[in-house]
Write a sequence for this structure.
């Protein structure tokens, strides 16, 4: 399962937390986007320092709340 950053049809899939943070930092600082995670769509504002806030409720959203699929590759 991946997390999808949605922005008016410009969807970007993220397979891990580092990728999600980089995409939000590099493309959406000081903007609002929606994020599809685990079947739930949330609307967030990305602050200048990379923190996320719920666009409508104003509460902080923790990066720990995002779920990514575990790798099936065994080393």
């Amino acid at each position: 399962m991946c997390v999808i950053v949605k922005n008016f049809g410009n969807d970007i899939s993220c397979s891990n937390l580092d990728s999600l943070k980089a995409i939000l930092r590099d493309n959406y600082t000081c903007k609002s986007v929606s994020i599809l995670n685990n079947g739930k769509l949330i609307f967030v504002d990305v602050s200048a320092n990379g923190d996320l806030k719920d666009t409508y409720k104003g509460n902080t959203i923790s990066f720990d709340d995002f779920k990514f699929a575990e790798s099936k590759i065994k080393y």
